[in-house]
Amino acid sequence: MHIDIITCLPRLIESPFSDSILKRAQAKGLVTVNIIDLRQYATSKHKSTDDYAFGGGAGMVMMIEPIDNCITDLKNQRTYDDIIYMSPDGERLNQSLANQLSLKNNLIMLCGHYKGVDERVREHLITREISIGDYVLSGGELAAAVVADAVVRLIPGVLSDETSALSDSFQDDLIAPPVYTRPAEYKGWKVPDVLLSGHQANIEKWRMDESIARTKARRPELLD
Ligand code: ADE
Hints:
Layout: E1 2-7, H1 11-14, H2 20-27, E2 32-37, E3 50-52, E4 60-62, H3 64-75, E5 82-92, H4 95-101, E6 106-111, H5 119-124, E7 128-131, H6 141-152, E8 185-186, E9 189-190, H7 193-196, H8 200-218
Parallel strand pairs: 1-2, 1-6, 5-6, 5-7
Antiparallel strand pairs: 3-4, 8-9
């Protein structure tokens, strides 16, 4: 998979890709992530990427021209499955959307700032909009990092077997069961006996029962 992230604040998004699973996925050659400074595509003397809103009002608007120049340049290099605008009014990210995106080859993520982008970007240049939840962030960068993380960990080979994404919460519309590690007893707090029994069938049944009970208690709507 190849992901291009367009931002006017590249430093804000560099670190999530320089550590842990996202870093390893790149090192293994399973994903390439290219962070693009939108300012490189600005045409004005001051390299502005935003301007005042027509009609007045507080807040700057990201201009269409640098964004169009950037997307056109990228599209000349490869064909994209989706050009995504990160926006609080987009389709809400969930595990099913992450699964869908993990099957794509080439993605662009455009990070908005200020009051957002000129509406013509959304009308003509973007193929889908994604929100990570009903709250407003200062920009799309953190949201793009969240989407990239949720998607890249699903690419076969990114996770090792013992951290397989198949046992994640939400993967089967259930919350993951509790997990424990040594010591088997700490300050009198014990690990459930079944997990120490070595009886794999009982352990699997316990995990499934716990998953269902947890989902009922915490997120009953997932069982509908
Ligand atoms: N940009 C600002 N807020 C956002 C959100 N909640 N999701 C995605 N992009 C955003």
